[in-house]
Structures are given as structure tokens and as C-alpha cells.
Amino acid sequence: MKALIRITLKSGVLDPQGKAIEGAVRGLGISNVGDVRQGKFIEVQLNETDQAKARAIVEQMCKDLLANTVIENYAYDLVP
Amino acid sequence: MIRASVIVFPGSNCDRDVKVAIERITGVAPAMIWHGEASVPASDLIVLPGGFSYGDYLRCGAMAAHSPIMKDVISKAKAGTPVLGICNGFQVLCESGLLPGLLMRNRSLKFICKDVHLRAERDDTFFSRCYRKGEVIKVPIAHAEGNYFADPETLDRLEGEGRVAFRYCDAAGVVSDETSPNGAQRNIAGITDPTGRILGMMPHPERLYEAALGGTDGRRIFESAVISLTADAA
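YS: structure for the whole thing
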């Protein structure tokens, strides 16, 4: 199966890149936009068929490497 | 004799600068240790140099913090071996958990390469004993991710334990939001662990260790370490 992992900045953490994107979107002439926050999307192929085991693996990789939980949250979906 | 080891990651680019600085100051060339090694030789000082380890992929320092060598660096640091992390090395120290918080993208989103003023906050720690408390020094920074971030409780703990080593300031030593080049919280340019023997800092002291380079304000980081090590041995 595959893990689709989303890593986002915690609320309250300043996101200058998101701000820059927001400015650029407005620069396109699109004015009805609010706050923009940038994150990361990571796809990981897992050689695992057991859902619980797959979750444990993804949790570990997110906590230990993919996200820095000082500033980031992570969420994921497991798909076939 | 000071036995220093400089850890070299793929993408490190200040490793030779710090090697030369240490060799000129201590008279002994440090060992250069490739990140893929399993252990660091017995060392009086371990340096994590500046650069762009692993191309800054994922987050600055995140991949390097999980390099094979880091297990031994972490265990030696916890056992009391002094560790100096400069720029990317500071980022690696934060990502490896040896120092709290982390370095975020500069608030301007720009790579900033210039001399900045720093205020020495301590004159009595392993790496700072040759500075005067409150002294203003000038040292270059060169980074895009030097914006120090930690939650308010952690910041208060760092302040309370006297672990802020250097703060960005102006030439008169005034610390304000305007004198923070990168948006770092509380103008933090460098912090230590509770013992003061692990120092992470964004500015590059190895770039100013002799007058020919434009100044010597960085030299005393290394001289402080030499004196501290001599005192340890006595």
C-alpha cells in the first residue's frame, strides 16, 4: 500500500513562504483569497499489507524524520 | 594538545574553513570525519560545520541529523564531549535534539550574507569565557534559514537557564526587532545546552579568526574552548 503524507505548519507559526504565495496569487488579479499556508506532500510506497503495522511505520517515519513536531503537524492516508 | 574532529556531511562547505581556523589557533589539525563513519575518534571537541548538508532537502539539517555518524556524536555529546555547531551545524544540532527549537526560513525569504553585530550574553561558559558579558562583536552570517524558533516555554527556559549565548544587536549592543537580520525569536543567534558545552550558532566565527580576514572577533570562540579544555585537564 501507499502512504499519502501531509506535513503542515502548526497554526501560530509564521509562514513567510505562504505569505509570499498569497501576495503572488493576489498579483494574478485574484482578490478573494485569505491566508495561504505552505506545506509538504510526501508519497511513500510501503511493503506492508497490514493496516496497523503500516500505521506504526508511518507514525515512526513522520515523528523521527519527515516532520519536525516543534513547528509541524502531520496527517496521512493509507491507500492501496 | 587539542584533538578536534570536524564532521563532514555531503554538502558541507565550511568544513575546511573551520579546519584551518582550528589548526592555526590550536596548532593541531583536526581529524576530518566523513558522515558515513560509525564513530568519531576520541575527541576533545567535535565540530559540525556550515554548509548545505544533503542539499537542505526536507528541512535544513534533518537528514544529516540521522547520518550514521550522528549516533556517536550524540552519545559523546551527552557524555560531555564539547560540540560546536556552526550555521548548518546549528541546524543539525536542533534536528538531532541536542539543542531545542529549530531554524526556520528567514522572514525576508532571502539568503543573507553579511557581517552582523552580536552581543555576547555570557562570559563564563565553555565557548564564551574569552568574551566580556555584553560585549558587541561583529561576525558574518550566511544563511537562508537562521530564523530561530521555539515555543514560548522553551524560550523562557533558555533565558532562565542563561543558555542564550549570542543575540543579534546593533553596533551599540541594542537588541530590537530591527536588529534581527532574520526574524529570530528574541534575536537569538546562538544557544547552548544546560552545561554550556554544546553551542549552536548561525554566525560563522571561523571566518574571522585572524586580522587578514577582516577581524578576529570569531577567534575567541576557539580560544575559549582551548582554555576550557586546559582547565578541564588540570
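YS: worth flagging: Residues 2-79 of chain A form a domain with the Mth169; Chain: A , fold (CATH 3.30.1280.10).
IM: good catch. Also The longest helix of chain A spans residues 51-66.
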